[in-house]
């Protein structure tokens, strides 16, 4: 008889809101699922997992292309396990946690094993839970986010934001656009971004503009006015003033 219910699912693009009388572990191998518990939302991705205690209300909506490992754990069944008390402590409160590469690789391997041998779901589930217990036991506080605390760096994909910024430096860039790329409200995005980078989003954009401009100043024959336009300044004067403040020398001197 199965102690647990373990499924490899594709969570659809429809919003679901419910509670259930079992604990639930959610790990993704690809794609994104927006999930909210007790007023705080995050994205479940290959880099971010979620623990949902029994009877906690939550809402979720997949992107339609995710592959998500969902483990349902009846509370009564934990008493039957040798280290059930350790697993129970995983679910003492709802939480999101970062997924390191080793745990992500294990998730991929176990998801594939489940596809090939569904009858082994108990063994696969126990292995997954024990691996997660060991990881979270050794994790630093910065790797685990309990609800009500500040967001952590994994909430934002800086590489994706940087790539988008580099394609739009000549344009007006608003915080609302950046927040939309991360599926966050502007206010939540602003606080997460500042916690991660130590600067506001607009200050980060300005820095990105100027660092790109410096490359053009030093390694191209473009006029300073043209460079100013390419990185989003309205005129050469405002560009030169910002450049001098940031690099402590004028663009003409740097050239």
Automatic annotation (TrEMBL):
Pfam families: HTH_18 (PF12833). The keyword Transcription applies. Residues 159-255 form the HTH araC/xylS-type domain. SUPFAM superfamilies: Homeodomain-like, Regulatory protein AraC. One of its GO terms (molecular function) is sequence-specific DNA binding. Keywords: DNA-binding, Transcription, Transcription regulation. It comes from the Bacteria. The keyword Transcription regulation applies. This is Helix-turn-helix domain-containing protein. It comes from Vreelandella arcis.
